[in-house]
Amino acid sequence: MTISLQNKLNIPSSYEHLADVERMIEDVCDQFRVNEDYFGNILVAVTEAVNNAIQHGNKSNPGKKIEIEFTSKGNELSFRVKDEGDGFDYNNLPDPTDPQNIEKINGRGVFLMKNLADDVNFLENGRIVELNFRPVQASA
Fold this sequence. Notes:
Elements: E1 6-12, H1 18-31, H2 36-57, E2 65-73, E3 76-82, H3 109-116, E4 119-123, E5 128-133
Antiparallel strand pairs: 1-2, 2-3, 3-5, 4-5
Helix pairs in contact: 1-2, 2-3
């Protein structure tokens, strides 16, 4: 049996709205009975995408919006985070594991997303980040 759910959240570019994003992720993971370990991966990856959208995409301008959209298809859960910025060159990011970058406090968001999600896609020149997860679901 395939459960299908679609949900959308629009927030201003402000960190105070991260709790709304976290609540959305919790609701989705509860509904799809995602285990705790995978929940952690989803929570960190999606909130990193939202953080990047706030800071880098929309330059922390609360007048600009961020759209977080959730869809499910079969055993795949997908989150799309869209900002109103100019995009970025996602193919030429510094490697945060390079010794020159280890001490830097920024620059790990995309690395984390790629390591925590099963699939990451950048659309519209990086203005949209699509994070796909395929958690193992418990038998019904």
